[in-house]
Amino acid sequence: MGKKITFRSLQSVLNKKWSVASKFSIHTAENGIFIFKCESEVVKNWILDNGPWDVWGVHLALRLWERDLPPIRSGFTKIPVWVRLMNIPMEYWKSRGLSHLASVLGTPFHMDPTTKAKQMISFARICVEMTADRAFPDVIKTKRRNGDIMEVRVEYSWKP
């Protein structure tokens, strides 16, 4: 997202960043779109779970390929964005509760491993597919069990 990056630059940087993940290949399409092929589901999940990824200040908007979606598109109307939800009421600290909060922003894709394991509950980090041309809210209002309205703060890894 943003300025274009050359294939060789992308390949060079990601080979270093993703060397832990094992084997993957990069294929270029038109309009600044790259297709990544992973040798296994484990590699794919490692790449998705350890983002967001930037190469020389260019944010990589990664999404899973869908069977009927042609790889070449002129632009993105929906983009995956890593969000950080803070000040989450304890009753929402379940996969279903966190997904419910994130769905206010868009379609939740997945949580980072720390959030999924509930190792650190000061914030939750979730990848959400958001509509690119809509406002990115800084707050999600939610109702607690006792009826109180609470504000969950939202931070974005980047905004288009």
From TrEMBL:
Residues 2-68 form the DUF4283 domain. Pfam families: DUF4283. InterPro entries: At4g02000-like, DUF4283. Transmembrane segments: none annotated. Coiled coil: none annotated. This is DUF4283 domain-containing protein. It comes from Cephalotus follicularis (Albany pitcher plant). The lineage of its organism: Eukaryota, Viridiplantae, Streptophyta, Embryophyta, Tracheophyta.
